[in-house]
């Protein structure tokens, strides 16, 4: 079942359409954010929707909808989904038809997709995953724009890799759909907020690590360092904490998911109830 | 007047729509290319449409339409436009609904926009333009994807700049909507094909420069060099050859459009008839 909210109405997703004149189609001017549920309760909804508004602002899209109104739409859509399974919500803001003053999109459109949540294969957590390093950075790291063309094109080069890993100039920033963490000499290392998307799972995790007195370094780790690291993992709302055992030719640690990653994953899962809304 | 071709039909552009399920909307998977007319004859149509197919391929979109069939659509659409003014054609290929094997979009959609050509203000050629330097590169320089979010967001930083200029690590690659050229010590310098979009106007110009024995260097010029250069210009299908007099804080030459740029622009215009189809 897939449901859509648009212009005040809920309708089957496959019956919803956008005019060609919208700049999300003509020039990729669109942003989105996703919310998943646990026990049908949305996780970190406020954080996700506030990030959505920041993304819109970074692209010059002038949002007209408040976070509380957005929350009502998310809650109502979840309620309309059949059964009692978990739901994945994707909330979009488009550039709309009008582009003025060379920088403003004053008439955005909104649509929201509601679908059954599909979790990653459990095997990925047991065996760990491979990432494909790319010597590039996202053009606007602060915005979650719809542009995932580079993130999705990686598989033609390395079909076995789960995601691309952006490594501009050899420094690891973030993965195509996830935040990236390296564990080296007992410290957890991840790129600072100003060069990556402020991942929600990442943000929770940083808080949990601090509360549990696990050493943290906010800096861009290099690919060279990674070959001497003990463990690595990626994070995301749906995948939570997933071990990384290979990046291109580099085997991380002994090539198996590590103990510290396992412990951090357990800590994260224990803390989830704190952020359900 | 704006016309659209879609699914075998021509219809008013504002009546055409795409289903939300298309990945051009959901994840920015879409490519396009444009063709303009001179005397109602399309310029470099074959080159543009072949580049369109390369762009599609780079994003994993499996094109089903041959270049000759595309040409027929372009010609018919131009014929259907009212009056005898020039026409701007935008030919799109979308990712479609299906994404398989983690890298393929096997069911693309096609749509084509036909509209009256609007030329840049003549004043821009007389006074020259300012560009806004950005320390980033496009993620997939070889593909003309729909993602122009960074190119369009520049004006909030420098509203007077015409376009963004991508300068990753201080090396000048290309502008947001144009190819970039610097003239220094009698030589024309521009970035090689492997780091920029293979611009059509750029490609013609390289041929014309060679035929006219004007010295050419295919390498990435630096922002530092630009401050010692005599002239600079950008090229594009609609703008043709447009002088650049400022890049951020750097004034190019004496701050006025240069003589060599003027001569190159004249050469380009004289050669246009060779590439009408």
UniProtKB/TrEMBL annotation, chains A, B:
Keywords: Aminotransferase, Transferase. PANTHER family: AMINO-ACID AMINOTRANSFERASE, AMINODEOXYCHORISMATE LYASE. This is Aminotransferase class IV. One of its GO terms (biological process) is carboxylic acid biosynthetic process. Belongs to the class-IV pyridoxal-phosphate-dependent aminotransferase family. GO terms for molecular function: transaminase activity.
């Amino acid at each position: 079942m897939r449901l859509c909210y648009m212009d005040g109405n809920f309708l089957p997703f496959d019956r919803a359409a956008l005019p060609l004149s919208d700049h999300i189609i003509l020039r990729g001017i669109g942003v989105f954010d996703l919310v998943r549920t646990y026990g049908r309760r949305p996780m970190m909804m406020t954080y996700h929707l506030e990030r959505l508004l920041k993304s819109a602002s970074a692209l010059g899209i002038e949002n007209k909808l408040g976070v509380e109104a957005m929350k009502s739409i998310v809650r109502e859509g979840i309620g309309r989904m059949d059964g009692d399974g978990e739901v994945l919500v994707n909330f979009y803001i488009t550039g709309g038809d009008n582009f003025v003053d060379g920088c403003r999109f004053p008439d955005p459109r909104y649509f929201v997709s509601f679908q059954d949540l599909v979790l990653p294969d459990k095997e990925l957590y047991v065996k760990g995953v491979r990432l494909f390093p790319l010597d590039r950075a996202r053009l606007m790291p602060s915005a979650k724009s719809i542009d995932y063309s580079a993130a999705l094109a990686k598989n033609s080069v390395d079909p076995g890799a789960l995601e691309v890993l952006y490594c501009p100039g050899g420094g690891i920033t973030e993965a195509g759909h996830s935040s990236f963490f390296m564990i080296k000499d007992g410290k957890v290392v991840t790129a600072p907020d100003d060069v990556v998307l402020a991942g929600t799972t990442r943000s929770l995790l940083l808080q949990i690590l601090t509360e549990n007195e696990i050493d943290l370094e906010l800096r861009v780790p290099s690919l060279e360092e990674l070959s001497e690291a003990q463990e690595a993992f990626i994070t995301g709302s749906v995948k939570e904490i997933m071990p990384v055992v290979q990046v291109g030719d580099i085997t991380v640690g002994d090539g198996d998911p590590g103990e510290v990653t396992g412990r951090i994953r357990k800590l994260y899962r224990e803390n989830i109830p704190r952020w359900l809304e």
